[in-house]
Structure formats: structure tokens, C-alpha cells
Amino acid sequence: MVKILAADPIHEDGVKALREFAEVEVATGLTPAKLRERLNRCEVLVVRSATKVTKEVIDAGEQLKVIARAGVGLDNIDVKAAEARGIKVLNAPEAPTVAVAELVLAHMLAWARHLPRADSGTKAGKWEKAQLMGSELRGKTLGIIGTGRIGRDVGYKAKAFSMNLLAYDIRRSPEFVEQTGAKYVDLDMLFRESDFVTLHLALVPETKHMVSKRELELMKSTAVLINTSRGGVVDDGALAEALRTGKIAGACLDVYEREPPRDSPLLKLPNVVLTPHLGASTREAQRDAAIIIAQKIKEALVT
After folding, report:
1. What's this model's pTM, rounded to 2 decimal places?
2. Fewer CB near the last or first residue (10 Å), C or N of the chain?
3. Tens-digit pLDDT profile for residues 54-69
4. pLDDT > 90? residue 250
5. Per-residue pLDDT tens for 222-237?
6. Which residues contact 66 (CB under 8 A, 6 or more apart)?
7. CATH topology for the 2-92+283-301 domain
8. Could you tell me which CATH number the domain at 97-274 has?
């Protein structure tokens, strides 16, 4: 019987699905040495984001056939080392689509209505109603960079708030345009004309610091940058400077160049809304990711 090691916590429904065709060991929090030792007996390794699947880990898994991440990216897996061994690398990018898209809308609403300050102030006994005049999303322009699953879902939801949509992607979606009225433009125009800019990109060499000083200087002084994709897509230092100097009005961030961002200058700025990489952190998304990855593992083992 196939042996599977789940080195990070995955939803119990996913474990149940795996146990329909394999022997599953759930062992979380393993040191790299312990992980290498356990892998020697397994054909499949399942992780989320905590476990780092390095070349050394991969080489220790002499029987490994599949490495699967119950989540979106593959940042924590040495994909080249796995492919060199003929090991299949799987993930579940479709699982957190709704969760991340809803977080983007939550960030925009939190910014527009000053919710972090309103919450902390009211709890501190303040009544800052006059100081917390907000704005509506209706009629504002949202620039979406990356119109894959998540970017498109953000657009569908933003359209329900009567927002205007600009989009940028190498691959354009006619269906997205037809359903939302979005207009594909070049990056410079998107940065110049958007009231909110939201990023939905993988972190690859081509997208590293895709948003830096030049791009931030194109934005309106009233504009807000939102990043729920990958931290390295934005130059955090350039962003902090743009926020300090009022070049842009604010930022809503769920991801950072270094996580946790303990020494980041962004932490001390008043014009940011920050969350600790919560994009896929919903019960529904975690369940979906576990079930989807279980099915993909099953398919991979028979092909």
C-alpha cells in the first residue's frame, strides 16, 4: 500500500480521502533531520507552507514519487531538484480563490471606512465619528494586475460594488471583459488611473520587485496598493518611503518580503492595514485544498 507522509496539518477531510487509497502518517513540526528520516519509507510527501522541501530532503526520500502542497504556491519546494529525480510536484491553486478574493474586498472596505482605527479608538473609549469620514468603493477604479482565478474573482466581486475595472495580464480573458466590463491596459496606465491597485502574481524572477519606486511614483496621491499575492512582488522599502512621503495614500498588505515582518518599517506607519498572511486561511479553503490535493495525488499515482 502507498505510504504518505503529511508533514504539515491538513484538513481532516483530506486525510480521510487519502486514507481511502493509502497509508497516511500525519507528523507535523518535524526537524529537517527527522523529516529526512521519515521520508525514507514514503512515496508521497504532503506539505503546506511551513515545511521546507529542500534538495537534501528530496534526496533523502529514495522512494518518493510525489510531492504535494495543499495550497497555492511552490515557494517552499525545490521543484528543480524534484523534477531532476522524476518526482511529480503538485499543488492546489484553485482552492483559495474565494478566500483571497474576499480578503481583498475586506482590505479595501477596511481602508475606505477606517475600520482599524475605528475599532481600536472605540475600544479605548474614544468617539472619533467626525475624524473618521470614509469613502465609498462605488465609482472608484480598481486596477487588477494578474487576471488568473483570483484576479478575476476579485473583479467579479468588485463589480458588485459598482467599481470600474482596469486589468493587466500577459494572457487576456475575453470572458472576464465581457462579464465585468474590465478594460485591459498597459501597466503604466493602470498605475496612473487606479484608485486601488491589487496584485495577483506568482513570485518569479520576472515579477521580483515588479512594484518599486518607479511604479509607485506613477500612482495617484490618493491611491492604495493591495498585495495578497507574494511579498517579493513589492519592494517593501520603496513602498514604506512612498507611504511616509505621501506619494500614495495607503497600502493594505497580507504578504511581505520577509515573514513575519518584525523589523519592517511598514509596521510603524499609520496609513497601512496589515494582516499576517491570511489569504487562504478560511475553513472552506483549507478543506478544499486538502480534498483537491488528495484527488490529484490519487490521479498522479496511477499515471
Report:
1. 0.89
2. C
3. 999 999 999 999 999 9
4. yes
5. 999 999 999 999 999 9
6. 43, 44, 45, 87, 88, 89, 90, 297, 300, 301
7. Rossmann fold (3.40.50)
8. 3.40.50.720
